[in-house]
Amino acid sequence: MLLQQFVMDALTRLNKQAMTNNVNFDVIGTIDSPYKEKFAIPRQPGIVSAAQGKVILNGSANSMDAVRGLEQFSHIWLLFVFHGTQDLGWKPLVRPPRLGGNKKLGVFATRSTFRPNPIGMSVVKLDKIEQQGTQVILHINELDLLDGTPIVDIKPYVPYADIIDHAQGGYAHQPPETNISVEFSDDAKTILAKVVSEYPTLQSLVEQVLKQDPRPAYKQKSIDERVYGMTLYDFNIQWQMVGASTLRVISINITKNKS
Ligand code: SAH
After folding, report:
1. Nearest to 104 by CA among 114, 113, 93
2. Which residues does ligand 1 sit against, CB inside 6 Å?
3. Does this model's pTM top 0.85?
4. Which CATH number fits domain 29-83+118-158: 3.30.565.10, 3.30.497.10, 2.40.30.70, 3.40.50.720?
5. Which one of 86, 183, 190, 258 is CB 3.0 to 4.6 Å from 118, fit for a cystine?
6. If DSSP codes are grouped into helix, strand and coil, which group holds residue 156?
């Protein structure tokens, strides 16, 4: 009897441990974003106000009931999976770009994408909630998320609880600052003019993304003649530094996916 009780207790303990050491989440939505690759995505939401996207709800979360009342909030929290980097693992020490990429800090002291559980969180602006047939879509803005990012939860941003007046922001207290000005070649201007009705915010998006200087930290201090490329929506955008703080968009090409 005693042995039986002991075995039962041990099994209950093991079972509890198994339940608390592993959790399973269902993806409740997917992000539709102009950022088609990691390079040049801002490091936090809110920095690039022209970055519009959508949350496409999935499965049983795809229901107007599940979002009833959410329209009262101007901003929402998105909890998501860093699906673009989750297979690359993590290390306890990381080099935050804000510190020039040459100082190491503990992963939990950073917003690095390489984490033991690849979970990200972003506050984004909620523009509107729409139903298209059976599909519920949240239109969002100011996002910092890669296209196709899986969403695991959505919560309203509640100012009285989420704003902390005298909070200390450590090495990231102030938003990143650059003095980069962005200019466009005549070729790039022609393309922007051609697509302005379909992509009215493309020029602002390109400008705002490039103003934050997406180059690796070590390049920002050196003379850099390299031509960089990035993809926004269906456009491949090439640019180059033409002086210490002037960045020139050389060309904008529609990628082959676009018919
Ligand atoms: N606001 C979030 C994200 C910070 S890291 C947080 O604090 O948790 C921001 C970087 O995440 C961006 O520069 C972008 O390159 C990267 N990123 C965005 N979506 C991603 C995804 N689905 N997979 C991998 N990296 C992603």
Report:
1. 93
2. 38, 41, 43-45, 82-85, 111, 113, 120-122, 144-146, 149
3. yes
4. 2.40.30.70
5. 86
6. strand
